Amino acid sequence: MKTVTFTPAVATLTYERVVEQIETAITSGAIAAGDHLPSERELMVQFSVSRPTVREALRVLQSMGLVESKPGGRGGPKVLEPSPESMTRSFVTMARMDSLSMSELVQFRLVLESSACRLAAALHNAEQLASMSSAIERMEQAVGKDAGAFARADVDFHLAVWEASGNALLTMCGRAVAEAIVGLITQQLSDSDATERTEAASASLDREIFEAIAARRGVEAGRRARQAIYDRYVPLLPEGTVLGMDALLD
Fold it and tell me: What is the pLDDT of residues 88-99, one digit of tens each?
């Protein structure tokens, strides 16, 4: 492991200063993914802070998805690779704290999905196309029969599209924001008095997106993706936020 030297933290909001320095060391590459931070005792000495301060800083870093602490593990907390899971936690946390609204999440999903579909139409390979096709078929087979299987197949379809985009950041963001608003899907289906019709409409829209991607019609795929997200989520959003969705639709 590379040796990284930290400087004493200031007295005000001490644990935040500890978080800032460790976060900077990780994001700059001074501490690589897979490396371990110094032990709690060593961090106490380097930062000149108490054990509770170090533990609070590590708790925050873990909630950010930057490190992982395992009881009985050798060495300090392990630095993690960036992942959709850590990004999802950030989106969900911001939404719960009202610093990021559901409307903003849906707008972001609309932009991401459209871009991913256009890229997937241009860059997909046979294996990725087969994954999309399989997911669509499973969605269609589950309509009105198994809501859980339908939801899993729906997620699998979009995951295959994001991966076919060839852009790792789009894939991570797509997975994260989709999982952060999964409650909207659950709410939509539970509030609907025609769940089978809702599922059938969703499967039909995804089938159209798939066919456009398979035919390498990127502009059409992106347009259909935007429309599908608009139709699915706008009825669940506050009335005053629809104008923003309208601006992204065309």
Answer: 666 666 666 666
